[in-house]
């Protein structure tokens, strides 16, 4: 299922990116023509043929993914060539390459942050509904949802800089940039991860606390919980064994959905905090119609989503016998 | 010796509206090895009493006075006042599931869907009996054998969703029994089950009780169950005890008006055709407004109004089930032929899974059928329903309406009663807004509700009132034919009598025709003119109600009738004759009734106007297709 889906995603991505009139090069040509520089135009025309931009739409698409011979034979995504970024005048792989692992790292840290923080709080809120603690977390949650992320980011950066002497912006201290990996560098990265993780994760955490609370409240009043209690189970064991297991399903199913929202939601934060992730690159690429770069990034996010979905499906099947054995039941 | 004695128990609920007394000065005792039945309507406080004994009262509830003393005859614990224990404390937890245990009403929801039943049953043993996981597993298997699970070893690893309702209830009983409790509370243990399975479960509880020497507190509203199970009866109403005594005393000589009224509200087989049930709160039907401007059905009384001919419906299954053989498709309806005559009430009876709801859906055209035809007489002869399109179909939808089983989920909680009642009129574009409002008011009067309630939302009504609103909605479009899908199975007996009488009055006043689907034979016996019995997608017997009930010819009908618990001490269930599995298996019916897979279920007229599915008799008298 994943492979056809990826093709559909790649096609849609390409289609949407091509929707605005013109492309990067024709825009450049127009700009140069209006300023009267004819010599560069010839070079750009050469680039147009070089990247098959003069071909019809479907051909361009197939050349891009590598299922149609371009000017240099089959040379597209399937062959591992991610295309050329006009804006940065480098291959896409070089532009995006260093940012991808950091993006994945940041996303992973954020998801971990969201889950680690929201679970205990959600359970606490649900089991002590309408207590002061519940109200307190609800209040904090609404603040978390309502505060603009970049504002929170700036405040936290300032505070961390004052208290811990952390350098402002970036994902590592300036002296480590372009240095080979070392223990110190890794520690620096970890320290710099804290602020962005909190900033990007806050609203997700707040939303997830609300949902876990609501789900768990629903489950807590179900009959099977009473059955468990009637057996003489301790409240804590009961909670973990029965209702929590049931309330988990929506969260596992959510992993796939979290990824794209984290990437797109973190663009502004990444720009503000000057993070070397894919977000700012995507923004530049979209602004300047750098189509191969933008297309590749969108496709990458799409793939992350699909992988997330696959993981959540597998986890669901492991955790829920109704899904695993659904076919075995008679109805 | 009394295992449980409740003395002057009062339980209050502290809610936002103030203090509500749910149980008021209740005293009774459960003697050793005896069964005491606690009888009452919903809201009478019987469940609160069971929660008190289990220490499962919600936080808002408080025991204001009285004692609940449990004395274990096995001597494992000293007599203890449960009411004084901390509900979540270790002492209470040590009792729960160990010395007192409970079986709930809903076997579908009282087991966790994510854990195997072996895990869930064994858990109680792990908690209380000081055993390791392996021993718990063996104990569980032993319990499953005791509750007559088919193949206990495999049952251990089955998930609840793979089991039928009856098997789940057996698993619940096994779970409650695994620690040999002194007291078992059975909170409406059979209300959600079919009659044949109900009889089996009741037998099982009796057997297990005899084997393990325990006391049972049976909470129920069904006097049939009481008559068959109880040694002593306690009748409770609005949190107060109305009457108590031995079953013998109470049935032969009921003293209190409430108990008399309750007994009068129960339909039973030995009622005359003209006898009417006496509901505790009767309602008066005002049909005058609706009779005006009603276009009468043009079909003459007694003529066929709806006809199903050889209707077959198959459902595909992806894979086979654990306990249900290995078929890739099941036949939900197998050449079903039924005729519903104008002005009659045809009762359609069968266990769950017999295809009765599928048949109703086929008539509604809510579902496509694989073979056969469903025809409806619009006043100009029978026409195939599946060929109706456009206005003709809309007209059919107006003529045929449905009353649902569950009054709680069939009304949209976000719509006012006025919106609910006028919506059908809006869909069909009938009348001006003023006329619709007028119509809504007369519909409310029709079902005996105050028109001032129109602005309320469904949550402010009781189950019986909601069902009346459902009936009013079904009548909004002036239908000719009503499909009633188990309209009273979710209601108390007293309310059931009220709804049944309402349906009878409406039929008389408005000249309606009913198809009444139910698994309760006594109810069908009360309301229906003719009965059709279904089993495994086949119609096995059709005839006049009196005739079928007093002279059942088909073995399945006989089994069904013998499994109905009568509210009469002199007519106990014959537990020894019970073998429901065989009775509902067409291949093990005796000749000439035996049906192998693939045998066409031919109806034969064995007595005048009394048809029985007996392929073995299909000779010169064969009447295939003309039946019913």
The level 1 CATH classification of the largest domain in chain B is: Alpha Beta
Overall helicity of chain A? over 70%
Structural class of chain B: alpha/beta
Q: Which regions of chain A contain 5 or more consecutive residues with pLDDT less than 50?
A: none
- How many domains of chain A, as an integer? 2
Q: What strand order characterises the main sheet of chain B?
A: 16-17-18-13-19-20-22-21
On the 0-100 scale, what is the average pLDDT of chain B?
84
Basic shape of chain B: globular
CATH superfamily of the largest domain in chain A: MetI-like
Calculate the terminal CA-CA distance of chain B, rounded to whole Å.
Answer: 58 Å
Structural class of chain A: mainly alpha
The CATH architecture of the largest domain in chain A comes to Orthogonal Bundle
Number of separate structural domains of chain B = 2
Total beta strand runs of chain A:
2
CATH names the topology of the largest domain in chain A as MetI-like fold
* Biggest chain contact: A-B, 27 and 38 residues
Comma- or semicolon-separated keywords:
heterodimer; A: 331 residues; mainly alpha; MetI-like fold; 73% helix; B: 628 residues; Rossmann fold; 2 domains; 21 helices
Task: Give an overview of the whole structure.
The complex is a heterodimer of chains A (about 325) and B (about 625). By secondary structure, chain A is mainly α. Chain A has 2 domains: about 1-95, no CATH class; about 100-275, MetI-like (MetI-like fold), CATH 1.10.3720.10. Chain A is built from 15 helices and 2 strands. Chain A has a two-stranded antiparallel ribbon. The longest helix of chain A has about 40 residues, at about 185-220. Chain A is globular. Chain B is of the alpha/beta class. Chain B folds into 2 domains: about 1-265, 3-Layer(aba) Sandwich (Rossmann fold); about 290-395 and about 490-615, 3-Layer(aba) Sandwich (Rossmann fold). Chain B has 21 helices and 22 strands. An 8-stranded mixed beta sheet of chain B has the order 16-17-18-13-19-20-22-21, with helices on both faces. Chain B has a 6-stranded mixed beta sheet with strand order 6-7-8-3-9-10, with helices on both faces. Chain B is globular, with a radius of gyration of 26 Å. Mean pLDDT of chain B is about 85; it is low at about 320-325 and about 620-628. The interface of A and B includes residues 234, 242, 329 and 331 of A.
């Amino acid at each position: 299922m994943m492979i056809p889906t990826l093709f559909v995603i790649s096609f849609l991505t390409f289609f949407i990116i091509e929707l605005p009139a013109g492309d990067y090069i024709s825009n450049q040509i127009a700009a140069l023509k209006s300023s009267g520089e004819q010599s560069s135009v010839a070079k750009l025309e050469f680039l147009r043929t070089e990247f098959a931009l003069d071909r019809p739409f479907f051909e361009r698409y197939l050349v891009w993914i590598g299922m149609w011979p371009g000017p240099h034979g089959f040379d597209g995504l399937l062959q591992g060539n991610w295309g050329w970024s006009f804006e940065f005048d480098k291959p896409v792989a070089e532009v995006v390459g260093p940012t991808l692992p950091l993006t994945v790292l940041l996303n992973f840290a954020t998801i971990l942050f969201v889950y680690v923080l929201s679970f205990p709080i959600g359970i606490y809120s649900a089991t002590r509904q309408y207590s002061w603690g519940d109200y307190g977390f609800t209040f904090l949650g609404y603040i978390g949802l309502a505060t603009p992320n970049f504002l929170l980011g700036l405040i936290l950066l300032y505070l961390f800089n004052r208290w811990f002497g952390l350098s402002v912006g970036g994902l590592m201290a300036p002296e480590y940039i372009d240095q080979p990996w070392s223990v110190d560098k890794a520690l620096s990265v970890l320290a710099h991860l804290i602020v962005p993780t909190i900033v990007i994760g806050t609203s997700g955490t707040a939303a997830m606390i609300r949902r876990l609370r609501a789900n768990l409240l629903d489950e807590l009043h179900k009959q099977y919980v009473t059955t468990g209690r009637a057996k003489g189970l301790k409240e804590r064991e009961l909670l973990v064994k029965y209702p929590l297991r049931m309330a988990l399903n929506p969260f596992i199913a959510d992993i796939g959905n979290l990824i794209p929202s984290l990437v797109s939601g973190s663009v502004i934060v990444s720009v503000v905090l000057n993070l070397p992730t894919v977000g700012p690159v995507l923004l530049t690429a979209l602004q300047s119609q750098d189509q191969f770069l933008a297309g590749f990034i969108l496709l990458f996010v799409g793939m992350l989503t699909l992988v997330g979905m696959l993981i959540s499906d597998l986890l669901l099947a492991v955790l829920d016998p109704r899904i695993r054995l659904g076919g075995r039941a008679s109805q | 010796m009394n295992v449980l004695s409740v003395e002057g128990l009062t339980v209050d609920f502290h809610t936002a509206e103030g203090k509500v007394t749910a149980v008021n000065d209740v005293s009774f005792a459960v003697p050793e090895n005896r069964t005491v039945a606690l009888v009452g309507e919903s809201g009478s406080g019987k469940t609160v009493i069971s929660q008190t004994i289990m220490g499962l009262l919600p936080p808002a509830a408080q025991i204001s006075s009285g004692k609940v003393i449990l004395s274990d005859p096995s001597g494992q614990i000293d007599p203890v006042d449960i009411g004084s224990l901390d509900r979540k404390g270790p002492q209470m937890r040590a009792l729960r599931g160990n010395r007192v245990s409970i079986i709930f009403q809903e076997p579908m929801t009282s087991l966790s869907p994510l854990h195997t039943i072996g895990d869930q049953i064994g858990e109680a043993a792990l908690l209380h009996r000081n055993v390791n996981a392996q021993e718990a597993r063996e104990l569980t298997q032993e319990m499953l054998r005791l509750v007559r699970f088919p193949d206990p070893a495999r049952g251990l690893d089955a998930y609840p969703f793979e089991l039928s309702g009856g098997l789940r209830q057996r698993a619940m009983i096994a779970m409650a029994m695994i620690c040999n409790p002194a007291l078992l509370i059975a909170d409406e243990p059979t209300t959600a089950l079919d009659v044949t399975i109900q009889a089996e479960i009741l037998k099982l509880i009796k057997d297990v009780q005899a084997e393990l020497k325990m006391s049972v507190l049976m909470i129920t509203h069904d006097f049939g169950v009481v008559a068959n199970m109880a040694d002593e009866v306690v009748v409770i109403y609005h949190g107060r005890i109305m009457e108590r005594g031995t079953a013998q005393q109470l049935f032969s000589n009921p003293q209190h008006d409430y108990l008399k009224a309750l007994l009068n509200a129960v339909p039973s087989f030995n009622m005359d055709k003209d006898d009417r049930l006496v509901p505790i709160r009767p309602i008066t039907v005002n049909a005058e407004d609706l009779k005006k401007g009603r276009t009468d059905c043009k079909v003459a009384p007694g003529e066929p109004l709806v006809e199903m001919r050889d209707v077959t419906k198959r459902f595909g299954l992806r894979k086979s089930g654990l306990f249900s053989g290995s078929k890739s498709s099941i036949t939900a309806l197998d050449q079903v032929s039924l005729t519903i005559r104008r002005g009659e009430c045809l009762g359609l009876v069968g266990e769950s899974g017999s295809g009765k709801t599928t048949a109703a859906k086929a008539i509604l055209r809510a579902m496509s059928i694989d073979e056969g035809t469903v025809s409806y007489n619009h006043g100009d002869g029978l026409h195939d329903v599946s060929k109706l399109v456009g206005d003709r179909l809309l007209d059919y939808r107006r003529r045929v309406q449905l009353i649902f089983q569950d009054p709680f989920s069939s009304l949209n909680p976000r719509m006012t009663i006025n919106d609910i009642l006028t919506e059908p009129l809006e869909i069909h574009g009938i009348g001006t807004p003023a006329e619709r409002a007028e119509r809504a008011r007369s519909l409310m009067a029709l079902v005996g509700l105050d028109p001032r309630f129109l602005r309320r939302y469904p949550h402010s009504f009781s189950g019986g009132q909601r069902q009346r609103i459902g009936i009013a909605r079904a009548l909004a479009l002036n239908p000719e034919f009503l499909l009633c899908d188990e309209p009273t199975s979710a209601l108390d007996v007293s309310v059931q009598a009220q709804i049944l009488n309402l349906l009878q009055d409406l039929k008389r006043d408005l000249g309606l025709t009913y198809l009444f689907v139910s698994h309760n034979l006594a109810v069908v016996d009360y309301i229906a003119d003719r009965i059709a019995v279904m089993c495994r997608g086949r119609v096995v017997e059709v005839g006049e109600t009196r005739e079928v009930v007093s002279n059942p010819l088909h073995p399945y009908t006989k089994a069904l009738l013998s499994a109905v618990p009568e509210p009469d001490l002199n007519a106990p269930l014959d537990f020894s004759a019970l073998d429901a599995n065989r009775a509902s298996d067409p291949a093990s019916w005796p000749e000439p009734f035996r049906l192998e897979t693939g045998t066409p279920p031919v109806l034969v007229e064995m007595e005048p106007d009394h048809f029985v599915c007996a392929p073995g008799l299909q000779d010169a008298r064969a009447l295939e297709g003309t039946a019913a």
